[in-house]
Design goal:
The structure is a single chain. Strands 9-10-8-11 form a 4-stranded antiparallel beta sheet, with helices on one face. It has a 3-stranded antiparallel beta sheet with strand order 2-1-5, with helices on one face. Strands 3-4 form a two-stranded antiparallel ribbon. It folds into 4 domains: 79 residues, Hypothetical 12.0 Kda Protein In Nam8-gar1 Intergenic Region, Chain: A (2-Layer Sandwich), CATH 3.30.1250.10; 72 residues, SBDS protein C-terminal domain, subdomain 1 (Arc Repressor Mutant, subunit A, Orthogonal Bundle), CATH 1.10.10.900; 69 residues, Alpha-Beta Plaits, CATH 3.30.70.240; 112 residues, no CATH class. It is 37% helix and 18% strand. It is flat, with a radius of gyration of 34 Å. The chain is built from 14 helices and 13 strands.
Amino acid sequence: MSLFQPIGQKRLTNIAVVRYKKGGKRFEIACYKNTVGAWRSGAEKDINEVLQTTTLFDNVSKGVVAKKDLLKKVFGTADEEAVCRKILEEGAMQVSDKEREMHFDNLYRDVANVLVEKCVNPENGRPYPLELLERSLKDVHFSVDPNKTAKQQALDFLPQLQKSIPIERAWMRLSIQVSQSAQDELLGELQAMKSRVESKKTEASRLFVTCALEPSCFRRCDQFVRSLPEGGGQLEVVALAIQGSSSMPEIFDVAGPSDTSDATARVCSDSRQGNVASQAEPRPVPAPAVKSGGRVFKCNTCGVEYTVANEHREHYKSKWHSFNQKLKSKGLPAVSEAEFDMDPLMGGSLGNATIYPCITCIL
């Protein structure tokens, strides 16, 4: 008696199964991997590039084909391609480990990108680098939720991230125009929302205000403008996120990385005369003794002289010399080495001394 060996089998390999339940019955279709998402997003239009076969199954792995009578009873049609399209759109997709890992990694990076676009460092008003935020999210054990959007997860997790690094939502910039009769009401509303009025002018019996406020106050501001009589107000969003300018006092508002010396110089003028001076008295720059007949090496930027060539070369590598070069490019006077060492804002250090901010500068 010969052994029964089935023939004519067509085995499906490299498949992704999409399952669909309806009327108490389960149906499955066999698709190529990494194609279902492209079909649902509209990137792929050809269904033959998505389906390995238009045959519907009760169980793909066992090769059990669904009966046409059952298809007509459940879906109202026996057209397999039409049923496959419905399952592609609404069915539950089988995701492999690598696909799931790639999806989570992309979503994790999207969350960090949202934080870069919508948040700033409150100390200088500038966005954080993407790599730093990704590392910070990892440090506070952020886990991705595949059922939420990247923006929703980023804003929901922001309070937890604030416990690790100084970060806040970037303010919005709005342009508002109202009639003069609503001027006092508008300014009172902006003050209640703790907004920052940047400009204000009156033209043709209308008040034009440019202000910055927290994104959470936008709906309230929009409702106020809408509540005015017809033609009484207009609101326009100038910038969704103000980045590159600080909500701190002006002395910390710098225009770019190369302008830090300018801002620092403004701070130093009072800090050297204030509480920082109480920690260590400024000492005059000691001029090295010059031996008669010896060669003198001079730095015109810092105004110091050296009798040893090695010391002169090392001076040009110092942070003090680099700082004075930045001041010189801005047309500002150079600072002495003692002043540079005393003020940490310049890059120096006072050791264990406590630094107190200058009240005059902050106010």
